[in-house]
Structures are given as C-alpha cells and as structure tokens.
Amino acid sequence: MDIGMIGIGRMGGDMVRRLLRKGHRCVVYGRRPEPVAALTDEGAIGALGYEAFIAHLNAPRIVWLMVPAATVDGVIDEVAPLLAPGDILVDGGNSHYQDAIRRSGALRDRGIHFLDVGTSGGVWGRERGYCLMIGGEVEPVGRLMPIFRDLAPGTGEVTPTEGRVGSSTAEQGWLHCGPSGAGHFVKMVHNGIEYGLMAAYAEGFNILRHAGIGLGERTADAETAPLKHPEHFQYDFNLADIAELWRRGSVIPSWLLDLCARALAEQPDLASFAGRVADSGEGRWTIHAAVDEGVPVPVLSAALFQRFSSRDRADFADKLLAALRWQFGGHGEQS
Predict the structure, then answer these.
(1) CA gyration radius, the chain
(2) Which stretch of 217-221, 254-258, 297-301, 314-318 has the lowest confidence by average pLDDT?
(3) Parallel, antiparallel or unpaired: strands 113-120 and 131-135
(4) pTM score of the predicted model
(5) N or C: at which end does the chain have fewer Cβ atoms within 10 angstroms?
(6) Which candidate in 42, 137, 171, 194 is catalytic?
(7) Is position 187 annotated as part of the catalytic site?
C-alpha cells in the first residue's frame, strides 16, 4: 500500500522501516534533511515540504502522524488543506482521546477520515511489531487493514488465551476498539497501567537493594528510628540474578521485567541515571478519566505522584515538613 509518514524520529522512522520491509510504498516528511535522507537510502520517498509530500502520495491518500501530542493540531492545520475527500489521516501518537473526538468531527466535515491509533512497542517495535489500538469509523479501518497487519506483531509464539470464545484481530496485535477516541482512550489506560507496573518493579527492587541495612553501623540518636532486629537484614542480593530468576517460572514475568533484567545486567548500580522520571501525559489523563468515572485507582495515582516527586516537585513540601518538626520539637535536619 501507499502511506505517508510525518514524524520520522525513533518510533516513526522504525515503523517506516518495518513497512518497507513488508513491501509497502512509503513517503516520508521531515523538517531536517538527515533523517529523510536516511530513510530514502532504505527505499522510502523523501520530502522536505508538505506539498511535495502530498504530491508523492497516490489518492486516496493515507497520512500517518507520529508527532508529539502538542504539535498535532499545528500539523493538521498545515496538511489538511492539501488533502481531498476520502483521504485518511491517522494520529499514531499519544494524544488525548478527547482531542481525537474533536479532530475527527472537524475533519469529517471536510470529507476526510480520521483514525486515532494508540501505538505501543517503543524502540523494539521495528523487530517485535507494534500493538495497535484503533479508534474511528469502520470503513477507513478496513482500508488500512494491510498496514495494521504488517505493523502488528502477528500471533508469533503467543497462543490464544485458554477459554477464549471466537477470534479477533486482537490475536494479531491490532484491534479496532471503537469509534473516534477509543484507540487513544485504550492507549491512555495502557500507559497508566505501565506507570503502575514500572513503579511496582522499582519499589520491589529497592527493598531488595537495601536488605543489607543491618550490616552497617546505625546512628543511635533521637532523630533516627532504631532498627530493632539488624540480624534480619544481613543480605547482599545480586539484583541482576534475581531479575533473571523471576523471568523463569514466577508469576510476575513481563516484557518490562525483561527490560529490568537487561538494565541491571548492563549496569547493576544504574549509576548513569539520575532518577528523574518524566510523564508525557497519559498517566495524568488516566487519573482524570478515573475521577470522572468515579473509579478508584490508588496504585496508578501513586505511581504518577512518585514521578512528580522524582523531579524535585516535593522539595518544598519536604522542607515544610522539616520546618514543622523544628517548630514543634526542635528537631534538626540530618545531613
């Protein structure tokens, strides 16, 4: 099939490479010539301007955006006037699902189809394939089936769930989840869950890392909680080995655990990381949706707030806690 990709960074560029390998004709747009040239060398058709980009595509056109959520409207404002009724515009980034509903309505008035496609797979998707969560009208979803099929992982070695009745494209790694916004809603919750899973692994390994606290000298003063049984904390665990162990036969394996094991094998002390954890929006939006639905999500919200804390957003609160302890009890801060 013919497809145009706007946004050819780490993820968009590798999606193009996967599609090229599957025999699709890919047109790519970039503001900088270097990434365009790299993909052109691999078989794509490159363009440095939107008009040239659209001119290279055969009608009805398929234009896929892999750009940051904050820039999607700006790109659509520039590209949509160049499109024609019947063309399909896909947002494969991490946009808010309510924006997808709005964009779909505005483009529908111009005869342009809009699909929101939550895309998961990261830098590994080029080889593993991408999990695709799709929202929009049935007809354009059907037209893009060859694209979805070739971007997705396929069944691979993952067997269908036991007891599952019937089959769907979910077993191939892609699914039409519902009308406009549905794809990004499902991806939003997917990323909220990801926050919680990552936090659980991080907190668990942190407990293991400090399980030798009884081996060292403990300060004995009024400001330090005593360790009642230091003999119970005499362990020096090899965290890389434990991560590797848990990948085999335990009840908590996952691809995230695979990546955790890889990170610890490469750098057991994680010294090259400062521990400042970003959040790109989906975790927040998941919490907002939960509040609107009246659904409790204590794990996901705690994971989000921990990310805020990791970026020094708790500094003033921590200072106030220290100040209050000084005010009521004369408790000084420890170095």
Answers:
(1) 24
(2) 217-221
(3) antiparallel
(4) 0.93
(5) C
(6) 194
(7) yes
